[in-house]
Amino acid sequence: MQKPYLEISHVNKTFQRGSMLTDVLRDISLTVQKGEYISLIGHSGCGKSTLLNIVAGLTPVTSGAVTLENSHVERPGPDRAVVFQNHSLLPWLTVYENVKLAVDKVWARESASVRKDRIMRALEMVQIAHAMDKRPGEISGGMKQRVGIARALSMEPKILLLDEPFGALDALTRAHLQDQVMQIHHALKNTVIMITHDVDEAVLLSDRVVMLTNGPAATIGEILKVDLPFPRRRLELVTQPSYIKAREAVLKFLYERNKFVEAA
Length: 264
Ligand SMILES: Nc1ncnc2c1ncn2[C@@H]1O[C@H](COP(=O)(O)OP(=O)(O)OP(=O)(O)O)[C@@H](O)[C@H]1O
Ligand SMILES: [Mg+2]
Fold this sequence. Notes:
By secondary structure, the protein is of the alpha/beta class.
């Protein structure tokens, strides 16, 4: 058996506000292999972002541990890049400068021309190089999200953490960006954990879909392995029995086992 790349081991998380304790995550254990694409799905407020932030090193565990390639995750680091739902770009910097900020930090020892190549490569990967001199206020939501992804990719992280990366986008932009992320993943074989509320998105992009139970004290309810070869083409998938079955399994989990209240 291959040694896990990322190991989340018996993680519990309790938030404390004054004397009030909230158990958010209970006994979460998950191993992820190098190059895997994992989706985390579960109802709003169940603790998905908390789990992602724990892997990012932004939130400490209450008990349990996270290890990445045998080293303990205790604080944020460039080996774990996060893309947040609300594209966290600096508004006073251009698209190019937003990516440069990350590149200069992570690749500080490299020459200016090598760093410039890195920035351009990342921008080209998500097809945003044409807008490199624009500021975030001058580009669309989908374009901002591309910049966030370019910035994360430019760091060449061991693991890419995506918190509802396409959540704020219209359906067409979303589909286009999903296809691009799928292509990038196919080319770079990077390891990804992505939070989503979208069942189709989870099945389309993932090797495995990890389903969290409702909070409080959410835990992993089911893990679905998506047995569909890459590259996947959305129009061909919709008629494939294994796709339909996978989709059904996730929907069933969300609706039946968890009394789904409202589709996001
Ligand atoms: N810093 C904090 N202090 C106290 N409670 C918190 C904190 N961060 C999150 N929580 C609580 O933990 C629970 C899980 O929040 P989290 O943001 O992880 O959910 P989520 O599954 O990502 O939800 P959504 O799908 O709406 O983004 C919520 O009840 C939230 O109020
Ligand atoms: Mg969240």
